[in-house]
Specification:
The protein contains nine helices and no strands. With about 200 residues, it is mainly α. Pfam families: DUF416.
Length: about 200
């Protein structure tokens, strides 16, 4: 039997496990936004941190929040690609988009937006490589193969698979599981782009 893909494995998780995975992946994308804010003098990292903290609180103790208010604030600090011409803008947009998807999933109690976060995280790595290190490769198939084999993409997939393993072993998501996942993400000290 063929091994399930990362996204198939995520679909098999229950809603709360998917939401916890999405929060973990957002935590790993946040430093990309922080770097953009520092270099572009635009945005507000506190908005993303506050929204993600609200998501973690929801997962840990089922604390409600005004998700639409967070979405509105997030929209205000999301960079517009027409206003910036720096590579770091795209990972910043991905961080905002992923967090928005997580918040939507929490508000609607639907797993689909949470799965989207995993896709956005992998996509941001691919886009970063495509526009940066691998930009000189003109053949699209060759570039796609290089992206798939690149250590940064392999690391992203490995991280997602490892967290899925963790969630499958843990089963139910409780306060302690959420605290452990937050700690793992923060102590890793590296974003999904290796920054």
């Amino acid at each position: 039997m063929a091994r399930k893909t990362t996204f198939q494995r995520i679909r098999a998780l229950d809603y709360r496990q998917q939401a916890a995975l999405a929060a973990y992946l957002c935590e790993r994308m946040l430093p990309n936004y922080d770097r953009f804010v520092e270099s572009a003098d635009f945005g507000d990292s506190k908005v993303l941190r506050g929204a993600l903290n609200a998501a973690w609180d929801k997962l840990a103790v089922n604390k409600g929040s005004d998700w639409q208010r967070w979405q509105d604030k997030l929209e205000e600090v999301t960079p517009n690609e027409q206003n910036f011409d720096v590579l770091g803008m795209y990972p910043a947009i991905a961080a905002c988009t992923a967090l928005s998807s997580l918040l939507q999933g929490l508000e609607d109690r639907e797993p689909g937006p949470c799965l989207d976060v995993a896709k956005i995280s992998q996509g941001s790595v691919a886009h970063y490589l495509e526009l940066g290190e691998l930009a000189e490769i003109e053949d699209a198939d060759e570039r796609a193969a290089q992206i798939e084999q690149h250590p940064l993409m392999a690391y992203e997939v490995d991280i997602q698979q490892a967290m899925i393993d963790f969630l499958e072993e843990m089963g139910d998501i409780d306060k302690e599981t959420v605290r452990e996942m937050r700690t793992i993400a923060r102590e890793e000290g590296m974003s999904n782009l290796g920054l």
